[in-house]
Amino acid sequence: MLCMQLFDPKVHTFSTYVIGLVYEIISREAASNWNGEGSFLFTSSSAPYDCNNNGSCDEDCPVVPIGRSPRTDVLLKAEKVVLDSGADRGAHVYWLGKGIVDARPDHILNLIHYEDAASLSVAILKKKLRGRIFLGCDNQPLSRQEVMDLVEKSGKFTKKFGSFTGTNGPLGKKLNNSKTREEIGWEPKYPSFSQFLGVSE
């Protein structure tokens, strides 16, 4: 029934909108996990190029303007997300941008660098295990305040953080993945947030 309904122009337009929104969200999520080092490779389609007469087309051809076609809008918006993505990501960058954050400073966070998350995932997949649960973290839990204190100490950011003003809400938990490390035979490239920032502990 759903496949039949997709032939209805109104439903098809709505479906294209939903698919486009999901595609843009996925692109944004992928870009948010890039720290700006190396390259971010985004593969797409030639559809955005404004050429549909079997003519020649290269990298310098103009693109279809936003709004002309829902199909190309999907791709153009996703590409814009990637092109606009910055180098610095993470909760600490968000908090720096906010300045004053209504959250508890003593809430514990468990961190892991995206490269370490990726390498751990690959290591687990190589074991070909089934029905297991593993933890990914750096075994160095920090409070929100400790995170921002390290950011300040690093001297790598021009913005200055204000403060956490929250007093209510749940506290976090301190994860330890020593069992995962031993079984999988994995160690993180970045053993702690402070080492990632280049701050002596």
UniProtKB/TrEMBL annotation:
InterPro entries: NAD(P)-bd_dom_sf. Keywords: Isomerase, NAD. SUPFAM superfamilies: NAD(P)-binding Rossmann-fold domains. It comes from the Eukaryota. GO terms for molecular function: isomerase activity. The keyword Metal-binding does not apply. Belongs to the NAD(P)-dependent epimerase/dehydratase family. PANTHER family: EPIMERASE-RELATED. This is NAD(P)-binding Rossmann-fold superfamily protein. It comes from Ilex paraguariensis (yerba mate).
